[in-house]
Amino acid sequence: MTEDDRLDPPSLEIAGPRATIRLHRSRHRNRIEPGDIIRLMQHFDTVDANPEVRVLVLAASGPAFSAGFHLGGFAEDREEAARAPGFDALVDRFEAVRVPSICRLQGGVYGGSTDLALTADFRVGVTTMEMFMPAARLGVHYYPGGLRRYVSRLGMNTAKRLFLTAEKLGAEELLRIGYLTHLVPPAELDAAVDRLAATLCAMAPLAVQGMKRALNEIGHGALDEAGCEARAKICKESADIQEGLAAFREKRAPVFRGV
């Protein structure tokens, strides 16, 4: 890793209920170095510890979203690589972030970043983007969590198509197979992300965060029913449900406080 790369770690900005993490290594297609994994894990912890945050946006600078994990990073900085968790741990941690997450995909998504984006709850992409998973072309056997996630979220046939053929897909096809949740022209990307983030921030946080966790568990075939029922009970006894019902009766927008 060059000295310039060390000066471009992922940043975190929190503005009211919205947190934004941004990748900054655009000259290398925002590849993720071992040190970035450490920093991103810290950012996720910061978001989870802040009860005011209700949505997390993962974004990137430059024309590409990310080229994924830099396999050469282990050889270039062995000390940092030894301290960093694995890329699979990073992706699982992003999936487990307490609040709903949005990936802002302004360009190409390649390699491990295809799984990183897939863990987000929403993926807003542009009509000029593309995606491919080159594992088979490189001789890489992908980690179990990513394989399971592809199958659970995109289906077995699509997972085999993407992993076994390294086929490059364009934006319209990514929307059709369900990889993208929203597709917009490049000029409308930020407005679309802002609208979705505002919608999520306006929802009841206890219910949204509890259901996100349950849905992810269901997607992995591992629903904690007792935990789900306990979270549902908390919502049933919360001030938020009273506010939601009152707002519905009074035909106004609810103001949820997460209690």
Describe the structure concisely for a colleague.
The protein is of the alpha/beta class.
Q: Describe it for me?
A:
The protein is α/β, with parallel strands linked by helices. It folds into 2 domains: 3-200, Alpha-Beta Complex (2-enoyl-CoA Hydratase, Chain A, domain 1), CATH 3.90.226; 204-250. The protein contains 14 helices and 9 strands. The protein has helices spanning 3-6, 34-49, 73-76, 78-83, 87-95, 112-118, 135-138, 144-154, 156-165, 171-176, 189-202, 205-219, 225-236, 239-250, and strands at 11-15, 18-23, 55-60, 101-105, 109-110, 122-126, 130-132, 169-170, 182-184. The strands form 2 sheets. It has a 6-stranded mixed sheet, with helices on both faces. The chain has a 3-stranded mixed sheet with strand order 5-7-8. Helix 2 (34-49) links the parallel strand 2 (18-23) and strand 3 (55-60). Helix 12 packs antiparallel against helix 13 (225-236). The longest helix is centred in the N-terminal third of the chain and has 16 residues, at 34-49. The chain is globular and about 55 Å long. The protein starts with a helix and ends in a 9-residue tail after the last helix. The relative contact order is 0.11.
